[in-house]
Amino acid sequence: MAQRDHKDTLGYWLHHMSALHRRVFTADTKKFGLTAEQYGLLFQLRDRGGISQKQLAELMHKDQATTGKIVEKLEAKRLIHRLPDPSDRRAFLLYITEEGKEVLRQLIPLAETVEAQAWEGVSTGEVELFKQIMRKIHDNLYRK
Question: What PANTHER family does the record tag this protein with (predicted)?
């Protein structure tokens, strides 16, 4: 049996495209002193303010320690803040600040430009097919 080229594997394409997308977008986020990951965290907090670091880590598909480092950096930049969790004195809830919301307002159009660039030349039908396939792959792997 012939050995498959690693570039024919799902893992290669997912990793390669994710890294490429992140690299292109990071050129924009750097202008604001942020990484693409920090942008993603701000975006999650904008939509779900008042969540724990553990919940945020789960949403970001990252471990709590990595998420904690990102949170510390964003807090030092005054883009997010922590408030005590009223239901657990040992825990904190995370919120985006007005400064964080303003950075997002400026970055979202840049993210949309990268998104449009990525989909350039791809038909609406192809986009929908891609999404269907990705949902199936997600569901197949999530069941494991």
Answer: TRANSCRIPTIONAL REGULATOR SLYA (PTHR33164:SF64), TRANSCRIPTIONAL REGULATOR, MARR FAMILY (PTHR33164)
